[in-house]
Amino acid sequence: MEESFRCVSLCDPEGVHAFILVLPVGPLTDEDKGELHTMQDTFSSRVNDFTIILFTTDSDPEHPDVGNFIENKDIQDLLQICGGRYLVLDIRDRRQIEGLMETVQTIRGEKTSVFSTHLFTKVLIERILKAELQDVKQKSEDEHQSTKQLRKETEEVKKREEEQKKKHREEIKSLQSQHEQQRKQQNQLLKEKNEIIEKEREMRKKEREEEGKKWRKQEELQRKEWKQKLEGSENRVKVEREQREAAERRLEQSRRDRARDRVAWEKEKDGILERMHQELKQNLQETKQNLEEERDRHRKLLEDFYQKRRKWTNLGFTLLLSVCLVLLYLYHSH
C-alpha cells in the first residue's frame, strides 16, 4: 500500500490518467483474473474507470484468431468491467505504441477526473472503515453466544480497534508526511528549474544586447565608409563636370574665333577684290600692254587666296576634331 501510494504521488498534481493491465492473447487463467482483483483490492473498484486492457501477441493483431479470442465470454466479461477499453499490441511492431498513447489520451479527454492521491486517501479511509465495520459486525454476532465472552472480547476488540486506529492513523500520517515531503521536493526542483531558466534568460538577454551593440557599430562603420565613397564619387563627378564645361567653353571660343576669322577674311577678300576691280577698271586702258603681267599677278593672288583658305579650313577642322576627341574621352571616363 505504501509503494502504491508513493507511485500515485509521483503523478501529482495531474494524477494517474490510466492503469494498463497487460495480458497475453489466449484463454484467461486464474492468475490473469487475479491481476484485476489485485488492482481492485489495492485501488478499490474505482480503478475500473481508468483501466485499459493491453493484450500482447507476437503475430498480426488483425489475424482472425485474435478476433475470435476477443469474442470469448470471459474476455467479454473482463472488457465489460473495464468499460470496453482494450488494445491488441504486436510486440514486434513498436509503432503500435502510438495507438496505445492515443487510447490513453482519449480516456484523458473523456474524463474530467483522475485517480489522484486525494482519491487514493479516500480509498484507504474507506477500507479502514470497512474493516472496522466488519470487525464490529463479527463482534455483534459473538455477543449472542455469550455475554461474558462478549465483555472480554469487547475489551479485546476495543483494544485492537484502538491499536488498529492508531496504526491506521500513523499509516495515514506517514503517507501524508511522505506526500508533503515529495511535494516540497517537487517545489524545490521547480524553484531551481525556474532559477536556471531565469539565469539563461538573463544570459541570452545580455548576449542579444552585445550582438545589438556590435551590429550597430558595424552599421555605423559601413555608413561612414559609404559616405566617404559617396563624397569621393561626388567630387569626381564635380571635377569631370568642370572639365567638361571648360572643354565646352574652349570649343565655343574656338568656334567664335573661327567665325570671326572667317568674317575678317571675307571682308579682306571683298576689299582686295574691290580694289583690284577698281584698279583694273581705272587702268584698263593704261595697262592693255601689261595685261599679261596683270593676269599673272591676279592668278598668283587667287592661288594665294585659295591656299590660305585651305590652310584656315584645315586648321578649323583639326581644332574641331580635337575638341570632339576630348569630349569623347571625358564621356567614357565618366
Main features:
mainly alpha; three-stranded parallel beta sheet; rod-shaped; 334 residues
Mean pLDDT, to the nearest integer, reads: 78
* Low-confidence blocks of residues: none
Structural class: mainly alpha
Taken from the alpha-carbon principal axes, the silhouette is: rod-shaped
Residue fraction in strands: 5-15%
**Gap between N and C termini, in Å?**
95 Å
Work out the helix count.
8
Number of strands: 3
Rounded radius of gyration (Å): 60 Å
Biggest sheet character: 3 strands, parallel
> SSE order, as H and E?
HEHEHHEHHHH
Query: In which order are the strands of the major sheet placed?
Result: 1-2-3
Helix content: over 70%
Describe the 3D structure.
The chain is rod-shaped. The chain has eight helices and three strands; from the N terminus they run H-E-H-E-H-H-E-H-H-H-H. It starts with a helix and ends with a helix. With 334 residues, it is mainly alpha-helical. It has a three-stranded parallel β-sheet with strand order 1-2-3, with helices on both faces. The model has no long low-confidence stretch (mean pLDDT 78). Among the domains are: 17-113, P-loop containing nucleotide triphosphate hydrolases (Rossmann fold, 3-Layer(aba) Sandwich), CATH 3.40.50; 231-333. The protein has helices at residues 2-10, 30-43, 64-70, 73-81, 97-110, 117-143, 147-282, 291-333, and strands at 19-24, 51-57, 86-90. Helix 1 (2-10) runs parallel beside helix 7, helix 6 runs antiparallel to helix 7 (147-282) and helix 7 runs antiparallel to helix 8. 5% of the residues are buried. Helix content is 78%, strand content 5%. Strand 1 (19-24), helix 2 and strand 2 (51-57) form a beta-alpha-beta unit.
